Amino acid sequence: MTDLRNYISQIKKSKELKVVKTKVSTKYEIAGITAKVDGLDAVLFENIKESNFRLVANLVGTRKRFALAVGGTENNIHEKVISAIKKAKPPKLISSGKFMENKSKNLLSMPIVTHFEKESGPFITSSIAYAKNPETGKQNSSFHRLMPIDKTHFSIRMVEGRHLHRCFVDAKEHDEDLKIAITVGVHPAISIAGAYQAEWGKDEINIANSLLNGKLTLAKLPSSELNVPSGAEIVMEGKILRDKTHPEWMVEMLQTYDHKRSQPVFELENLYFRNNPIFHDVLSGYSEHRLLMGMPIESKINGELKKSFSQTQQVSMTNGGCNWLHAVVQIKKKNESDPKKIIQKTFDSHRSLKQVTVVDDDIDPNNAESVEYAMATRFQADKDLVILKNVRGSSLDPSSNQQKLQTAKMGIDATRSLSKRSEGFELAQIPKINTIKLEKYFK
Q1: Domain residue spans of the chain
Q2: 248 vs 121: CA distance, rounded Å
Q3: How many CB atoms are located within 10 Å of the residue 432 CB?
Q4: For 427-434, which contacts have Cβ atoms below 8 Å and span 24 or more sequence positions?
Q5: Which of 4, 46, 141, 426 is least surrounded by CB atoms within 10 angstroms?
Q6: Of the candidates 358, 316, 361, 317, which has an alpha carbon nearest to the alpha carbon of residue 339?
C-alpha cells in the first residue's frame, strides 16, 4: 500500500502514534501539542473545532519513522534514498483516484493551522505542487507552503530559480497562468521525494515510486490533466495567476521568521478529498520539517563524498544546525590533506552549508558532545581552520546578507594529526564494561 493511511497503520502497530480525541483548535493548540511531542510520536487529531477533517502531524519526526517511510532502517536510509534516485521510474497511471469521493470549492473546509504568534496567517505546510515542465512536457513535484486569502485563493511560496518558479516565469512570459495541482496527505515517501531537489527536467514523483517499490499509482485530474498520487487524501487543482501577488511571511527551518515577501496567488478550480479525510500538518522549524528537508540532502552528500573519497564513513546534518546549515563528516583519515579536500567538496555538495566539521572514525558524528570533544583535543585554530568569505549561502540565515545571499563559511579539521603520537589521541577503554550490570551491585 502506498497511501498515508497505510503508513499510519504501520506506525500505530509500532506504538509511535498518539491519538487525540479531545476537541482541539487549529489556532495555536494543534501546533502547541505537536511541539510538545516533537521528536517522539506522531499525533492524529480526530476532533477538530473548525473542520470535519482529521489531522496528522509529526509523521516522520524521527529518523526511525523516516527510515520506515523509505522502506529501510536507520542504518541504511542513505543507501535507500540514493538507490531510489538512481533507479527512479514513472508510476503507473490508473483511471480514477480515491480522492474523487468528494468535491468542493471551499479551501477553508480544511483544518488549516495557525502555528506561530507573528506569522501572517495560517499555512498549509505539507502541500506538494505538480506542474508541467515547459521544455520537456514532463511533470515536476515540489513542496510549497500556502496561505489562505479567501475561500478560493492562496498565496504560494516559491523560491526563485527553483523548478516551479521557472515553470511559472515561463507561463508568465507567454502571458498565461500556470496550471498546477496540489496534494495534501500523501505517503511520506512522496513527501520525502518532493523535498528533494532533482535536476531540471526530472520528476521527483519517480523517486517516490522507487522508494515504494514501484507500487505507486497516479490518477489524471479532469480539468488540469495533471497526474497526482491516486491515494492522496486531498487534491486541489487550479492555476497560479500571472498578474497577482499577496504579502506573507512565515517561520522557516531555523525556527525564525522570514522577511515579508509578495508571493504569487493560486486560484482554486476544484477541491477533491476522500471520505473521512486526513489533513497533514508539518510544524515549521521542528523535527519533521527539518528531517523532511535535511535528510534527502544528507543522503546526497553521503553519496557524493563516498564516491569521491573512500575515506568517508558517514555524514550527519546536525540537529543544532537545523539539519541544513551544519554538517559533520566522519572519515578514516589517510593523509593530512584529506580533511580540507573533504571540507571543500562538502560545501560544493550543498551550498546552504555554513559549517563543516571533519572527525575521525572513533567520533560519533551524531553526538554533539563527541564532536566537541574532537574539537577540544584534535583541533588547532591556527592551522586546522578554513574560512570562506563572501560566498553563496542560505537565504534562511538571518545573520547573513540575505539580499545578496552571501555569507561566511567555516571548515574545521578536528581529526588526529598523523605526525603526532597516536596513543595520545586514543580513547581509553575499560575491558568488559558492557557486561557490568549496576543492579547487581546496587540493591
Answers
A1: 80-283, 309-419
A2: 8
A3: 7
A4: 427/362
A5: 426
A6: 358
86/210 Cα distance (integer angstroms): 9
Choose among 194, 270, 186, 188: nearest CA to 225. 270
Rounded to whole angstroms, how far apart are CA atoms 19 and 46? Answer: 7
pLDDT per residue as tens digits for the range 233-281: 999 999 999 999 999 999 998 999 988 899 999 999 999 999 999 999 9
CA 235 to chain CA centroid, Å, is: 20
**CATH placement of domain 309-419:** 3.40.1670.10
Q: What is the pTM of this model?
A: 0.91
- What is the number of other CB atoms lying within 10 angstroms of the CB of residue 112? 24
Q: How far apart are CA 191 and CA 205, in angstroms?
A: 9
- pLDDT tens-place string over residues 292-322: 999 999 999 999 999 999 999 999 999 999 9
Question: Residues 349-385: pLDDT tens digits?
Answer: 999 999 999 999 999 999 999 999 999 999 999 999 9
